[in-house]
């Protein structure tokens, strides 16, 4: 007798308003699916700054700061280690002395975009190299 009462209570709990329970489960699953597929994550990467296209008569003495912080945004992936970030400045307009140039970033993945670079520019100190002076004499 007691067993029949308990089975009846369980049936009432499960099957009463079953269509509403099923509908709420489906809606909650779809909402979870939507949120989990659109989650954008931000990643901070510190990278050394390279100087490319340096004129032949100049040498780089110092770069301040040597590293910049690059913030990337994209869908979460366990393969974050596969991202290659290259930060550089174009040195084709370098002059002797103090130069302030903007930092540029190249990443090897189209899944991520660059949100910010901090600082946006670096100071590069250059000097005339002595090998050019000796060759011209």
Layout: helices, strands, pairs:
Blueprint: H1 2-15, H2 18-37, E1 40-52, E2 58-64, E3 67-75, E4 85-90, E5 97-102, E6 104-107, E7 112-118, E8 121-128, H3 130-136
Parallel strand pairs: 1-4
Antiparallel strand pairs: 1-3, 2-8, 3-7, 4-6, 5-8
List the defining traits of the structure above.
five-stranded mixed sheet, alpha+beta, 8 strands, 137 residues, three-stranded antiparallel sheet, rod-shaped
Order of strands side by side in the largest beta sheet?
Answer: 6-4-1-3-7
Our measurement of the CA-to-CA distance between the termini, rounded to an integer number of angstroms, reads 114 Å
Order of helices and strands: HHEEEEEEEEH
Give me the number of helical elements.
3
Helical amount among residues, as a percent range?
A: 25-40%
Characterization of the model:
This protein has 137 residues and is α+β, with helices and mostly antiparallel strands. The protein contains three helices and eight strands. The chain has helices at 2-15, 18-37, 130-136; strands at 40-52, 58-64, 67-75, 85-90, 97-102, 104-107, 112-118, 121-128. Strands 6-4-1-3-7 form a five-stranded mixed β-sheet, with no helix packed on it. The longest helix has 20 residues, at 18-37. The model has no long low-confidence stretch (mean pLDDT 84).
Quick summary:
30% of the residues lie in helices and 44% in strands. It is of the alpha+beta class.
């Amino acid at each position: 007798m007691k067993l029949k009462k308990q089975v009846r209570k369980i049936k009432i709990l499960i099957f009463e308003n079953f269509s509403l329970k099923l509908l709420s489960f489906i809606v909650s699953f779809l909402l979870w699916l939507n949120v989990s597929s659109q989650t954008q994550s931000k990643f901070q990467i510190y990278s050394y700054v390279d100087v490319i296209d340096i004129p032949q008569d100049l040498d780089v003495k110092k770069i301040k700061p040597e590293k910049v912080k690059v913030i990337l945004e994209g869908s979460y992936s366990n393969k974050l280690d596969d991202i290659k970030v290259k930060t550089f400045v174009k040195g084709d307009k370098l002059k002797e002395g103090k130069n302030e140039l903007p930092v540029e970033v190249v990443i090897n993945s189209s899944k991520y975009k660059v949100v910010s670079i901090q600082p946006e520019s670096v100071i590069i100190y250059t000097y005339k190299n002595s090998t050019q002076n000796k060759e011209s004499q």
